[in-house]
Amino acid sequence: MTLRGRFAPSPTGPLHFGSLVAALASYLDAKATGAEWLVRMEDVDAPRTVPGAADAILRSLEAHGLQWDGPVMVQSQRLDAYRDALKRLGTAVYPCGCSRRDVTGRYPGTCRAGIPAGREARAIRLRVPDDRPIQFHDRLRGSISESLDQTCGDFVLLRADGIFAYQLAVVVDDAAQGITDVVRGADLLDSTARQVYLYEGLNAQPIPRYLHIPVVVGTTGEKLSKQTGALALDDTKAAQSLWQALDFLRQSPPEELSGAPPRTLLRWGVENWNWSAL
Question: Whole-model pTM above 0.90?
């Protein structure tokens, strides 16, 4: 089996330091084991996509020496694959007439046995098991077990606005690309059980190994993101940003490399990658 990691940004704005940390961690983890490292643009949520952002992200990755293997997959070009996945799930999926205002927290199963009178189908949900916890292994946190019926309930795969949900698209794409190792922010840890359950329902292989890394937060304690006003990376200062990202990941880069070019920093990072230090 060919080992493959990936970085899958959403083109809702330019690359920032938090996304650089995620990209660097996945890159180092892949290259330290001789794996391929792929890039995928997760632009399935079209209203949030910013024109030109995908190209800007790719240019920024290149400026930081993070060269990917093979073509870049683009989610907006794969809608037929998501439709096919819905069909393959068969009776495990059902139409739901609930709006977001109707659901706070866990979905209570309102439309499981049919849409109540006076409502129309809006979204498509996946029926989760009532009495079977989903188990997976995170390389930092060990074995994790989650009962989806207790934490989230039946979850949306196709939104009311006709957009395929992240949970479905990411599983279909990871399976299609043969991703064996997913390295991503810990803010996505609570999505993992849902995705493992989808792997099972689609009979997709391989189910990846997971490593959820600490996320970069701003001065208010919120995750650094485009939504919280994260500043775009300055590609002319790529070496400085890479050294800081290595330091954030607790890889202890030597001070003498603080002014080294990106290629030198990445070579050191691959040779000294220690994911357990996270």
Answer: yes
